[in-house]
Write a structure and sequence with these properties.
This is Protoporphyrinogen oxidase. It comes from Salinirubellus salinus. It holds the Pfam family Flavodoxin_5. InterPro entries: Flavodoxin/NO_synth (IPR008254), Flavodoxin_CS (IPR001226), Flavodoxin_dom (IPR026816), Flavoprotein-like_sf (IPR029039), Protoporphyrinogen_IX_DH (IPR052200). This protein is an alpha/beta fold. It folds into two domains: 145 residues, Flavodoxin domain (Rossmann fold), CATH 3.40.50; 33 residues, no CATH class. It contains six helices and seven strands, in the order E-H-E-E-H-H-E-H-E-E-H-E-H. A five-stranded parallel beta sheet has the order 2-1-3-4-5, with helices on both faces. The protein has a two-stranded antiparallel sheet with strand order 6-7.
Length: 189
Amino acid sequence: MVSFLLVYATGEGQTTKVATRIADALAERGHETTTVELGGGGGADVDVEAHDAVLVGASIHMGKHQKAVRRFVESHREALAGRPTAFFQVSLSSATDEGAAEAAEYAEELFERTDWHPDRIGLFGGALRFSEYGLLTRFMMKRIVKENMPDVDTGTDTEFTDWADVDAFANDVAAFVEGRLGVVPPRAD
């Protein structure tokens, strides 16, 4: 069994859904996962050393990751370097083929800024939750969507996350960590 730490920050909840799905997939493989949503402090009190592997997740808002994620990586860079790590990002840019390069640039910018080099990277489409936005945010998001995603109905909430991709990422991370640590996953009967 591998002890995973999964830390993340979310803006509107889609990253929480992705983190939960990843934690569930790791548990199905017989591993233990401690999940921590990062607050403003960036997880300074999280004991990275107590875990065999770490996954870090963030969403993109207005072209930026949450500061708490950057602070976590900067605060724990040495501990992260000493174990298998993975990063996942949730963004609207990842929802389209045209936006894929932009989504990858956001991740690369975080890695360059923090000097962290995760072993595995997953980029997933986010969600539009028009029903939950305030008036100004709803107006801005509708304009952005109409310009960049004209086929999307701005009158309803839409989820762009490809859950099969999330499952594949979780299983790839688990297999990588199992191999690196020499852990044999339990056999499914």
